[in-house]
Design goal:
By secondary structure, the chain is α/β, with parallel strands linked by helices. The protein contains seven helices and seven strands; from the N terminus they run ααβαβαβαβαβββα. Helix 3 (39-50) links the parallel strand 1 and strand 2.
C-alpha cells in the first residue's frame, strides 16, 4: 500500500480539531530540548511530536543497541544507528513538518551552555545518575530562568501509583518515585519507564500551555 501524503494544512487542521486552534498555536510554538533519547527520552519525544509541539531539540551520543529494544521506541532496523538519526526519522513519520534539530554529542559541563541556550524547556532523560546530576546542576546554575523537567526512580515493576510529578523549585520539576534504582530482576522495564516518561511529557505540555503547578 502506498504511503499516504498529508499536507501541512491537513495535519494542522486535525490537531486544531483535537486541541482547539488556541491551544495548538501554543503547542506549535513550543521549544523543547530532550537530553537522552533512551527509554524516557524516546517516549517523551513521541508524545510531544503527536500533540504537535513544533520545535524539538534531540540530544544523545549513543547508538541503538539490542538491549534498548525492551523499553525504547526503536526497532530492529535501527540497530547500530545513532539514536538522534533513528528517532528523528520516526518522529517525522508522525509529523513531517516538525522542526527537529539534533546534536549527536555527549552533554558535558563544557558544552552545556552552548547546547541549551536556545531552548525554553529542557528535559533531562538520562540513565546515568552522574549525568543526571551534572545536567540538572548545570541548568540550575547557568539557566535558572528556563524550565527543567527531570526524572528519578522508575525501575522495575513496583506500583504505578508511586510515580509522581513534584515541583522542586520555581522552575525545576522532578518525576518518578525518587528511590527505585535498577537492580537484578528489577531493571528498567517498558511499562514503568513509559509511565514516568508520560509524567515528564505531560508536565512539559502544561508548561508550554502556561500551567506551572504540577
Amino acid at each position: 500500500m502506498a504511503e499516504q501524503k498529508l499536507t501541512h494544512e491537513q495535519i494542522n487542521e486535525a490537531l486544531d480539531e483535537r486541541h482547539t486552534p488556541e491551544i495548538q498555536e501554543l503547542l506549535s510554538r513550543g521549544n523543547v530540548a530532550i537530553a537522552g533519547l533512551g527509554g524516557l527520552g524516546s517516549n517523551i519525544a513521541y508524545s510531544l511530536a503527536r500533540i504537535g509541539v513544533g520545535h524539538l531539540h534531540l540530544i544523545d551520543f549513543d547508538v541503538v543497541d539490542i538491549t534498548n529494544l525492551n523499553r525504547q521506541q526503536y526497532f530492529i532496523e535501527h540497530l547500530g544507528m545513532y539514536k538522534t538519526d533513528a528517532l528523528k526519522s520516526l518522529l517525522l513519520k508522525i509529523n513531517p513538518y516538525l522542526d527537529i534539530h539534533t546534536d549527536c554529542v555527549k552533554v558535558t559541563e563544557e558544552n552545556l551552555t552552548e547546547l541549551f541556550g536556545d531552548n525554553d524547556i529542557i528535559c533531562e532523560a538520562f540513565d546515568c545518575p552522574e549525568a543526571k546530576a551534572m545536567l540538572v546542576n548545570g541548568i540550575l546554575e547557568h539557566f535558572p530562568e528556563k524550565k527543567l523537567v527531570s526524572a528519578s526512580g522508575m525501575a522495575g515493576y513496583e506500583s504505578s501509583n508511586t510515580i509522581h510529578t513534584r515541583r522542586i523549585t520555581r522552575n525545576f520539576y522532578l518525576c518518578g518515585d525518587r528511590t527505585t534504582e535498577s537492580a537484578p530482576g528489577k531493571g528498567l522495564m517498558a511499562p514503568r519507564v513509559a509511565i514516568c516518561a508520560a509524567h515528564q511529557a505531560n508536565m512539559i505540555t502544561r508548561l508550554i500551555l502556561g500551567e506551572e503547578n504540577v
